[in-house]
Amino acid sequence: MAEPLLEVRDLVKHFPLPHTLLDAALRRRPETVRAVDGVSFTLGRGNTLGLVGESGCGKSTLGRCILRLYDADRGEVRFDGVDLMQVTEGELLPYRRRIQVVFQDPYASLNPRQTVAKTLLEVLDVHRIGSPRERGSRVAQLLTQVGLSPGDGHKYPGEFSGGQRQRVGIARALALEPELLIADEPLSALDVSIQAQILQLLLDLRASLGLTMIFISHDLRVVRYLSDDVAVMYLGKIVERAPTAELFARPQHPYTIALLSAVPEVGGAGREEIPIEGEPPSAVRIPRGCRFHPRCPWKTARCLQESPDLKGILPGHTVACHVAEARLAAGGSPT
Ligand SMILES: Nc1ncnc2c1ncn2[C@@H]1O[C@H](COP(=O)(O)OP(=O)(O)OP(=O)(O)O)[C@@H](O)[C@H]1O
Ligand SMILES: [Mg+2]
Hints:
Helix content is about 35%, strand content about 20%. It is built from 13 helices and twelve strands. It has an eight-stranded mixed β-sheet with strand order 6-7-8-3-9-10-12-11, with helices on both faces. A four-stranded antiparallel β-sheet has the order 2-1-4-5, with helices on one face. Helix 5 crosses helix 6 (about 130-145) and helix 7 (about 160-175) packs parallel to helix 8. The chain is globular and about 70 Å long. The site of magnesium ion (MG) has 3 residues, from helix 2. It comes from Candidatus Segetimicrobium genomatis.
């Protein structure tokens, strides 16, 4: 693998729920949402990691912890060798420059009362990039780079279409020439016809700027198209990770197989299918043992008791499943 740009170790982020009357009556501490519950992975420079999993499994929270938009409870987020968790707020600015984000809904993250040029200028000002004069031409260059015209800088976010607004969101993320871009469902608020254009824009920029990317998406077809590796999250943990072609050809975790089964276009011919049943359980009451066991067709007595660790089973391929591991050890593949 390429030299790691990002190394996340045992990252945990829990959100305490408000104190309820029941908590008071039982004299217990308020319950917590275990949004990110021990996540570890590395990401090589210039690589793209696709991050998939059902709604509420912790993808955005993980992204926000890496961006230090949330302070994780514990763990390490080592970026270019420096643990960002140990960096004080005052020393974060250079890292905020090097790690940027594109959100699902750029409208929510753009100031509606400010022209787009002003928004972009502000970003350059905060980070003291170039002289004021250079900043003006950098804004024009950024708008052009994302397929808008320099004249669009005079417009307010509300005057753009959804696709154009996402282009502005991307321009803002690129203004600081980041090394790592976290794209959190950047296409899902857009019309299907526009999605392909924005996807192509991201791919072009990734190639020309050599970006390292975490691409969070529900759309397995897009993830397969643009990721070098895919990580599958379930209830706050990564349950499988593999190079993209390998993951789609030989998924090992029953949850991954279930996710792929739900999208016939990405299923391999003759591969085992698992229907995904039931609602995702709450991240407040995470089942004992393997957190997937209540929905798992393969579960054994061990799965009810013992949480499986993420283990390397094939080159570059890790999985957290007692049964998948046992099947492979027995020489069979579950798929
Ligand atoms: N600021 C917050 N305060 C309290 N709970 C939160 C907060 N942010 C997220 N959560 C909870 O943490 C869990 C993970 O949420 P998160 O937004 O990370 O999921 P996600 O995988 O990004 O989902 P989606 O695919 O719907 O975007 C959910 O149960 C969510 O309700
Ligand atoms: Mg999300």
